[in-house]
């Protein structure tokens, strides 16, 4: 008996990354679509990048390429700080950065603060291989406003990781100097912070604004970059502020099993192309 080939879905998700640029992915299934108190949330299953979380029409994480981002966000500061025992993660409700942080045996406490409980619940339900780190006994997951939480925290953390959404609406304050000042207060004297700071091609003003704001707060400020295929332009920046240590120099070994991060990638990420150096000059 002749069997007909399975028809491919013609449902597509399109992210408008800028006014003049879009990314489209074929969708096999819509697993969740909801309006939370803070944003529109969707979980989609795609043949190209696997399951992905979309917030307000912007891709936040996909199963296929999340390691490129989450490994850089976690291992750059944790390998550059000599003793990162206590770590704060701002945002990151999918749990990917938390997973990478908890690879380090020296981490005894990791606090994840994400305002949107429904994002965390969706990640647990639909991305269990990524979100399972939330069940680690060292992890504390808090559903609250990170700005308020940090404002009332003093000297508790060695490393802070700002895994925020794009700088719009309730997340806009996470890219500004007052937030970084409060964040430095929440760190110990030799603390270090890393923040995702968007693409230098599609959001150059965000890169320069966040870098300048962080440079005004921390004695050491460095920009680094890496590949991130499903984020606008595929080139992503991370800004590191440090009270004591040079973030471009790994002083601790990374746990085995990484797919993107290596000590050589760590050092190379701080070697900026000429146009990027000029952008933050």
What does it look like?
Helices cover 27% and strands 31% of the residues. It has a seven-stranded mixed β-sheet, with helices on both faces. Strands 3-4-5-6 form a four-stranded antiparallel β-sheet, with helices on one face. The chain is globular, with a radius of gyration of 19 Å. It has 281 residues and is of the alpha/beta class. The chain folds into two domains: 11-62, Roll (Spermidine Synthase, Chain: A, domain 2); 66-279, Vaccinia Virus protein VP39 (Rossmann fold, 3-Layer(aba) Sandwich). It starts with 10 loop residues before the first strand and ends with a helix. The model has no long low-confidence stretch (mean pLDDT 94). Helix 2 links the parallel strand 7 (86-91) and strand 8 (109-113). Helix 6 (177-186) packs across helix 7 (204-215). The protein contains nine helices and 13 strands.
